[in-house]
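Q: N-acetyl-gamma-glutamyl-phosphate reductase, please. Structure only.
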Amino acid sequence: MTLPVVFIDGDQGTTGLQIHQRLQGRTDLQLVTLPAAQRKDARSRAAAINACDIAILCLPDDAAREAAASIENPAVRVIDASSAHRTHPDWVYGFAQMSEQQKTLIATARRVTNPGCYPTGAVGLLRPLLDAGLVPRDYPISINAVSGYSGKGRAGVDEFEGPDAAQATPFQVYGLSLAHKHVPEIQQYSGLSERPMFIPAYGSFRQGIVLTLPLQLRLLQSGVTGARLHACLEQHYAGSDFVEVMPMDASQALTGLDPRVMNDTDKLRLMVFENAGHVLLAAVFDNLGKGAAGAAVQNLDLMIAGG
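A: Structure for N-acetyl-gamma-glutamyl-phosphate reductase:
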C-alpha cells in the first residue's frame, strides 16, 4: 500500500511547526517539507505541491492564494490553514462537528479551509442554536474573546518571549475598526443574517482562548431558557471526541474561566451560564490545538480515510 504524501508548505510558523511536530513520527504517511534554501523558491514549492497527495498550507493569505493557484495536478488535495479561502464557495469549511454532513464533506473534499481560531468557538456555540431556532438569525450578537499571544504568530512569540519581552503590553484589545477578518467567517458559518460585533484581545500568556457571547432571554422566543440552550448544545455534540459541553451545574459552580485549561488538547469546551434573564455562552480551547494545528490534523485524517 502506498502511503499518502503530505507536504507542509510553511512549516516554520507557529501553526506549521505544530503540525510538523504532530505528523513527523507517524508511519501512515510520508511527510515532506522543503529545506531552508528552497522555502521561498517558487519553482521548488510548486514542484513539491504538485507531487504530493495532500498539501497543508501554513502561509500568509496572499502566499496561500499563490500556492493554491500553482497547483496543476488535479489529484492534489489541499488544507489551507490561512484565512485566504475561508468564505470561498469552492472550499469546504473544515469544522467537522459543525453539522451532520460536514465530516463527510471534508473527507471527500479536494479543497478544505481550516477554521479560524476565534470562529471555531463562535461557530461552535452559535450554529446548533441557530439551526434549532432557539436564537434568531438576526439576533444582535456580540462576541468577546481573549487569545494567547501565539495567536499573533511568530511576531507575537517574539514580542513576548524575545529580548524586549519586558516592554510587551500585558493585555490589548484590538480590531477596533470593527471589521476584523474573522467576522464574515463567523457570520457565514454560524448562519447569522446580520454581522456580529466581534471584540478580540491578546493576553500575556502563550496559548489558549476564552470566548464569551452574551444573550438576553427577553430577546428570544418565549420558553427559551439557558437549560434549553444547553440541552441543544449537548444533543448536537453528543458522542463527539473533540467538543465537550460542560454540565450546567458544573458551569454554575465556576467563579472564573482560565483560557489555558484546554491547552495541549484538541478539544473545544463549551459552557452555558444563566442568571436573572441573562445567559452567557462560553468556549475555552487551545488556539494552536482545536483552533489551528489540531483542527488541520483532524481534517487531514478525515481526508486520508475518505480517500
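A: Brief note, in case it's useful. The domain at 117-287 is CATH 3.30.360.10 (Dihydrodipicolinate Reductase; domain 2).
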